[in-house]
Here is the input.
Amino acid sequence: MRKLVIANWKMHYGPVKAGAWIRAFRRERLPKDLDIGVAVPHVSLAAARASLGRAGVPLLGAQDVFWANDGAFTGEISPAMLKEFTLSFCLVGHSERRINLGETDEMVSKKAVALQKAGIQPVVCVGETEAQKKKGETLKVVRAQLAACLAGVKGDGASLVIAYEPVWAIGSGRPCSPLDAKNVHEAIREALVKKYGKPGSDIRIIYGGSVDARNVAEYVSTTHVDGVLVGSASLDPRAFGMLCRAALPA
Here is the structure.
């Protein structure tokens, strides 16, 4: 299974800076056996696509979507709209949206289903809070989120990615240990195989939370961890290129 590294710019970079980032990143020397994606703000998708042209690296993705293709949903972006940018993937259920905007597992499921119907791979994010971790509820929380978020969602290696992102590790500088990540990813794999059968073993499960060039190799080389979701360490194209090289050293 090829490893996957996704840059999530979050609320950074309008069209001008997004285009400049893509052009700079394409000059980086990148591992050939690594799949690389970049999730950009909606307003910057056109500029990112124009700078990418037909290039396959990085894969272009969005950070969120609404579940209807059209209608009276002021301010929302539909799967049909995203499809016009020839996107490869879209994040759904990121913890920042759950916390700041009240996004629920049911909403995540509806978004993932809508993306798959549009031919866009959803990257479904799950993860526990610090309070839940301290209570020893990590696996209980993650399994419950998976069950709810994947309701009606197709599961195989081409149509779905799961991102485990412990809320307490995101942007905190306190990453989850590779061993703890391995244990959670193993539980996620068991849940996916139980739900989808053999195709569940082909779904990539990536880790997100304070990943940088210094620790990325530890995660990528850990059993059951199929890649990483990178936040602040992806904002500089040269630094992100370094991270990608560190993920799969020559």
